[in-house]
Amino acid sequence: MSHQFPASELADRALLLATLPSLDTPHFLSPVIQAAATSTRQRLVIVLFSRLFNDPLPSSTTAFRGISHTGRWDDVHRLLTYVYVQATKVAQDLDKVLMDVDVLLLGIDGEAPEDIGVGMDIVFRVAGDSIAVPLPASVTSVRQSFLLPGDRDGDHSSEPRLSSPEPQDQGSLPPPPFFPVVALGGTFDHLHAGHKILLSMAAWIASQKIIVGVTDDVLLLKKSNQHILERLPVRTQRVRDFLQLFCPGLIYDIVPITDVYGPTGWDPDVQALVVSRETIGGAESIATHREAKGLPPLKTFIIDVISPSNERIDHEDLEMLRQTKMSSTFIREWIVEKNKEEEEEGEEETRGPAMGIGRN
């Protein structure tokens, strides 16, 4: 049965489990995600299970191999963006800007992590959904709440459906499903949904190692509300914690950077680079630098969270994307405003008794 907690029973930490039949935008999960986000105060972890996320390599012994991680980049990127936006928009509308939202993708060719439910107050499930992997005691021992999904557009099949593949140039070879070493960089202040999409997609296409360049504090002195900006050790640790949660089997080399290149400026083992649409210029500089140094070129993957020209995003979804503020600047401004409000309230409380005494 669908259940939403009254305000007095909001969960601090919640887990949401759901199965995906395809890589199509999961509109049927929208009411579930929004209800879970509404009922959570501090942290919501959303775990999406699908056969499509099984091991795609030919050496896999599973009966159903998963999709190519590079070949389905756009589909998975769009999926993650949709889910993050659904939860983040609700949190922001309810003034829970600092609520932590994590989205994980798990196949059904293995076991769910034993500790996935540790510390959770509630596990949200989708009514009528049957998770195809055994759930550990850390999940089954926690209170369960079943939420009603939206319309599945008549799709009641339990078999996974593949979205239309990305077109390939005639005569070109398809990309490998993974790249051994993938690099990316950023400031990663107050780690938010936009950062997590970037990090997730880098981990999604890496098979061995991810190199993350985190902007050093010395380059951030002119940032707005710089006094609120998290220091380098905090930002680095939050990046590491998230990546180890999303894909614990990889090696993570997280280093401070003081220029646009970081390790991509000298490391010949990097094969791929993940950048946001706003930092394509940096990718071009890296390409020029590597060519001058005689280093192998990098395959560049672009994260474009808001793409008005993308016809594969519904109008309503695009509008929600535009309204959702996935920005460290916005978060710092929100914190400053909250601190100001608390200071003003404290001053009013201090003045109140004094004024009362004066009147007596």
From TrEMBL:
Bias (Basic and acidic residues): 150-159
Q: Any idea where the Cytidyltransferase-like domain is?
A: 184-226
Tell me any Pfam family this protein matches. CTP_transf_like
Protein name stated in the entry: Cytidyltransferase-like domain-containing protein
Output the GO biological process annotations, alphabetical, semicolon-separated: coenzyme A biosynthetic process
Q: Which SUPFAM superfamilies match?
A: Nucleotidylyl transferase (SSF52374)
PANTHER family from the xrefs? BIFUNCTIONAL COENZYME A SYNTHASE-RELATED, DEPHOSPHO-COA KINASE-RELATED
Spans annotated as Disordered: 149-174, 339-360
Q: Name one GO molecular function term.
A: dephospho-CoA kinase activity
